[in-house]
Structure formats: structure tokens, C-alpha cells
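hi support,

uploading two proteins for the ticket. first:
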Amino acid sequence: MQPNIYLFFAGDCLEAMSHYAKVLGGEIGSVFRNADAARPEDRMPGGDDMVMNMDVRFSGMTIFGSDNTSDMYQTPQGFRIQLNLDSSDDFDRMFDALSPGAREMAMPPGETFWAERFTMFTDRFGTPWMLNFDGSKMQG
């Protein structure tokens, strides 16, 4: 058994998950839209283009996603997707790719007592992220 992340979006699931696949080096698996439902009762609320379910596969991990209508969508809270990066260049590249249009910058990139580079923010799609590069802080 392996836990997976399942993200909900306010109508921009395909755009968000495609962006994550590109930025994180993943591959889009399946994409099921409302229009793909064989029977009307199998549809979720919303239009034909609403994503019912999709997945992006990374090395050893899958992130799932779905659209919600505006009355059903809730901003994610109580978690962050954490990426522990191998270099300050990787940190900067990932931050530059995920943070444009950020809804919230909880902690701007900077040094901490445990990491050479650390940040927490919520991206333009509403997904909360935490990026970390230990560098020399956690060696030895």
C-alpha cells in the first residue's frame, strides 16, 4: 500500500496538473472528463470539460486531481506538498516554476537553521508547497 496525494481544483485541474507534470518531470496518465461519462447519472456537477479524475505519475509516486464547481471547491489546508531538492539551483528552478502568481507566500525563500534554502507558499492553482534544500546544514 502506498499513500497518494489527491488534489481538488476550482475548474483548472488539467492546466494545474499539466504544469506539475512538466515542472516535476512527470507523465500524465489518464484524464477522465464529465463528457466521458457514459450515463448522465455518472457525471459530476459541472460542464463537459470538468475533469472527474486524472493522474500524473512521477518516479515512484502518483498525484491525482479533480475539478470541483465553485460552490463545492474548498481551499486546501492543513498540508503542503514538500519537495526536498538536491541543490540551490534545483531549489531556485522549482521555486521559479511553481511560485509565479502565488496566492500566498507564507515564508519567502531564505536560510533557516535547518536548511540553506526554504520556502512555503500556495501556488496560483491553490496547491500549498514547501521547498527545502538542506545544503551543508544537515551534513554530519
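and the second one:
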Amino acid sequence: MPEARPRFDLSRLFLVGPLAIAVAVLAVLAVRVVAFAVLALPVAFPPLGWGPLVLFTAFFVTVAVLVFAVVARRAADPAGTYRRVALVALIASLVPDLLLPLDGTSGATWPAVIVLMVMHVAAWWPTVRILTTLGLSPSR
């Protein structure tokens, strides 16, 4: 008997997608609270502001949910394929952060950039976990 392949059910995504967005936003904001409590971070550094964090996290996790929908519909191994795609996207998202302190105009410090990169991971991990575990249903 062939191995059961997880199925993609779009109706699940209408529940799981918003859950992934909410958890990612909360994780990013939790990192911000802790980081500002223990580190001397530049308050005026725009990427660490409350509004930009919520807006950009919600936007990019929404894009991640849409990418998951495409991958889940087309891939033979949707969870594995999406995990690989998401890892590449995470690594690519870190590159611009690494360049921020080098331009001299953004006001970025290395501690602020490291916190920003930790926030990327804080959004990435629950998003991938929620989508690949709750976003697919077992085949029958």
C-alpha cells in the first residue's frame, strides 16, 4: 500500500493562516520587549518600532502563507518542500539586515541588527511549524 501523503485543504488555511500570522507577530513583539529590557538599543531605529514590526511581520507572514498554499498544492512532499523554501527565504531575509550597519546612515548598531535577525527567526519558526503541521490534513 502506498504511503499516505498529506493533503492540502484550502479551508484549513483560512484558520491556520491567521493563526500563523498572530503567533509570529506575538513572538516578534516578545523578542522586542525582552531585547529592550536587557540591551541598550537605539529607540529611534525604525525597524525596531512597534508599528513597523507588526506591519512587516504580518505582511511577510501573509506572503509565507500564500507561498505555502502554492507549495502544498503542487509539491509531492508539501511539508518538506515548504520547510526548504522557508529556510532559503529566512537566509535571504537576513542579508539586508547584515548590510544595515555598513551603510552608516540607518542608525543601526550591531546589537540592534542581531535583535532584528532574531526577530526574523522568531517569526519564521512558528510560521513554518504551524503551516506544516496544522495546514495539511492526513490523506484518507
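thanks. also noticed: Helices lie at 10-38, 50-74, 78-103, 110-134.
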